[in-house]
TrEMBL record:
Residues 1-21 are annotated as: Disordered. The chain crosses the membrane at residues 117-139, 145-169. This is Phosphatidylserine decarboxylase. InterPro entries: PS_Dcarbxylase, PSD-A. Coiled coil: none annotated. Pfam families: PS_Dcarbxylase. Keywords: Cell membrane, Decarboxylase, Lipid biosynthesis, Lipid metabolism, Lyase, Membrane, Phospholipid biosynthesis, Phospholipid metabolism, Pyruvate, Transmembrane, Transmembrane helix, Zymogen. It comes from Gimesia panareensis. Signal peptide: none annotated.
Length: 349
């Protein structure tokens, strides 16, 4: 489906949508990465030793962090001594630190996804470390001929895998287009599918559904397509089919983010984070009631996946991207509603 000039110029006679009530947190979402994983287990193990060390040898630091901590309950199954302990439970509310009191706030400003820093460290160490050890073994031995060639090919393979891990978890800055009626892409990747829906239950009427395929070479951070409030989160366990297969949208594990734009339009939207054959971990830091600006980061999907966005089909809606286009989360304009402007932009904070 593609818009025409008559669609763009049609009068926007749609009445404001009703305000939605914020729904309780999905009970399955007890942490920001509902699928768990080996790296989480490693971090939890390390966290237990770190907390023991802090309580034993850095009691002054523990007291200082407790004095600046805010919130009225502990959302974690363990003690919270500093912001690192909240990493996987920040969607549960409760304790938090203001940015100026958080000695680890810099991690959100690194050029890598903070949700994937542990994976980045562990996997790149394994691949680059393995390449270094294998190189040392080849150079310090008398291996030659075919075995030497095979060895150096393995070294190259490990370096390429390590480079891909670093590339995968990058977090580039984006320029966010302004305009109240502007919808930006929630993910990097390829505009894969577009579908008209006659009646979508959450939208409450006709809707447009756009699917975005993310290869292992794309940035996998998800961003808000518009400014809005989080109304509901729903986690759906499922399969891990190849994200290129159309049925993956329905059958794969996914996390659905239901949101609503501010007044006067109150437009509802839906963003789905969907796993793929390689991507087995969805991360979503949101909780119902959160209010975010357009382009704000809210999570990621780790290694090859799919993102779907559903928004109202109205008079005056113009689809500005088309199947096959390469999209960038937060900066590529997917569509805009009548009387909106994309001329002004602002840099992401």
């Amino acid at each position: 489906m593609s818009s025409t000039s008559s669609d763009v110029n049609a009068p926007a006679t749609v009445q404001p949508y009703p305000r939605r009530e914020v729904e309780p947190m999905d009970p399955q979402l007890t942490m920001i990465q509902p699928g768990g994983g080996i790296i989480i287990n490693l971090e939890m193990f390390w966290g237990r030793w770190r907390r023991f060390w802090l309580k034993t040898f850095r009691r002054g630091y523990v007291k200082k962090m407790e004095s600046t901590r805010k919130g009225d309950f502990n959302p974690c199954p363990h003690d919270v001594l500093d912001p690192r302990d909240l990493k996987y439970y920040e969607n549960q509310g409760g304790y938090y630190w203001d940015e100026q009191d958080d000695p680890f706030a810099y991690r959100s400003r690194l050029p890598f996804a903070r949700e994937g820093l542990a994976e980045l460290i562990v996997l790149s160490t394994l691949f680059f470390g393995g390449a270094a050890l294998l190189s040392w073994g080849i150079l310090s031995s008398s291996v030659s001929g075919v075995l030497s060639v095979i060895g150096w090919l393995l070294v190259l393979t490990l370096v390429l895998f390590g480079t891909e891990i670093v590339w995968f978890f990058r977090n580039p800055r984006r320029t966010i287009p302004a305009g109240e009626g502007v919808i930006v892409s929630p993910a990097d990747g390829t505009f894969d599918t577009i579908e008209e829906i006659e009646h979508h239950e959450f939208i409450g009427g006709p809707a447009i559904e756009i699917g975005i395929f993310l290869s292992i070479f794309n940035v996998h951070i998800n961003r808000m397509p518009v400014a809005g409030k989080i109304i509901k989160l729903a986690y759906r366990p499922g399969k891990c089919l190849n994200a290129l297969r159309p049925e993956s949208t329905r059958l794969n594990e996914r996390l659905e983010v239901y949101l609503q734009m501010p007044e006067p339009t109150n437009r509802p939207m839906l963003v789905q984070q969907i796993t793929g054959a390689i991507a087995r971990r969805i991360v979503c830091r949101l909780k119902p009631g959160d209010e975010l600006v357009k382009g704000a980061q809210f999570g990621m999907i780790k290694l090859g996946s799919r993102t779907v966005i559903v928004f109202p089909r109205e008079a005056g809606l113009e689809i500005l991207a088309k199947p096959g286009d390469k999209l960038k989360a937060g900066s590529t304009v997917l569509a805009k509603y009548a009387a909106s402007s994309t001329e002004a932009t602002h840099e992401e904070a």
